[in-house]
Amino acid sequence: MRAVEVTALGGPEVLRLVERPDPEPGPGQVLVRIRAACVNPADIAARVGQIPGGPVPPPFLPGWDIAGEVAAVGEHVSGLTPGDAVAGMIPWFLTRGTPGGYAELVAADADWLVPVPAGLDPVVAATVPLNGLTAHRVLEIMALPGPATMLVTGASGGVGGFTAQLAAQAGHTVIATATHDDEEWVRGLGVHTVLPRSSKLDI
């Protein structure tokens, strides 16, 4: 298979297109044929050697957020079959260099994948996993008892945008901050009030 490998720590110039053997799914894993991979800040941080726990020694394959289709299923996996559209995370640097999703194929832990609705563009689906699940988990932990008013700072960013959108859909009154250029886009997420990011807030 073809893959994009980090050959040394540094800027984009250290990325190389290489050939690697096709992976095989182990127990609890599925083989995903990658249709899209997001350039996550975690991948960039790892490429330049600035991640918790110290740098991952090159060469390695980055690629945290992915979308694609199931090509094969390993032992002890239920609920996923070949041909299913999926999206999810490959927490490759947490395991210090397990191959990530910048490749045509990746062996992914089934527990880190979710089905993708029919017709959803894999490029769109690949942007959801880390940011979207982080936002979802934030609201889960907050466990607000009913409709509440909440402030979401940085609502034009990945996690902030998903948090604002999910909170508004859950019936909360959302006040969001954003830069002037992003205010209209943030309003489109369903928030009730958008404040300039430069506002001095008395909370």
Automatic annotation (TrEMBL):
Matches recorded under SMART domains: PKS_ER
One function term, GO molecular function aspect: quinone reductase (NADPH) activity
Record keywords, A-Z: NADP, Oxidoreductase
Listed Gene3D superfamilies: Medium-chain alcohol dehydrogenases, catalytic domain, NAD(P)-binding Rossmann-like Domain
UniProt keyword annotation of Cytoplasm present: no
Pfam families found in the cross-reference section: ADH_N
Domain Enoyl reductase (ER): 10-203
InterPro entries found in the cross-reference section: ADH-like_N, ER, GroES-like_sf, NAD(P)-bd_dom_sf
Gene Ontology cellular-component annotations: cytosol
Entry protein name: NADPH:quinone reductase-like Zn-dependent oxidoreductase
Organism whose genome encodes this protein: Actinoplanes octamycinicus
